[in-house]
Design goal:
Layout: E1 2-7, E2 11-15, E3 21-30, E4 33-42, H1 47-81
Antiparallel strand pairs: 1-2, 2-3, 3-4
Length: about 80
């Protein structure tokens, strides 16, 4: 994964070397709070690749939810200190 896009205090995006996977984090304001969005996009050109993602997708969602909760908890702790 290579860092593809940096928009200070707004967005980060990574892209795989072959261009088939993009992972983006975006900060957005919403009703006086900040929301962190994470998005993944895969280009799976073969049936085998698509079938291989079936068992991985639920595990990936659990992992990503845990990661985002951890980021949220750390950000809230930092906000309490300032």
């Amino acid at each position: 994964m290579r860092l593809e896009l940096v928009e200070t205090e707004r967005a980060l995006a990574w892209r795989s070397a072959d261009g088939n996977w993009v992972w983006t984090f975006v900060l957005g304001e919403q009703e006086g709070t900040t929301r962190l969005l994470s998005r993944n996009r895969f280009r799976l050109s073969t049936l085998g690749g698509r079938l291989g993602m079936l068992p991985m997708e639920p595990a990936s969602l659990v992992m990503e939810a845990k990661m985002l909760r951890g980021i949220k908890e750390r950000a809230e702790r930092l906000g309490e200190r300032s």
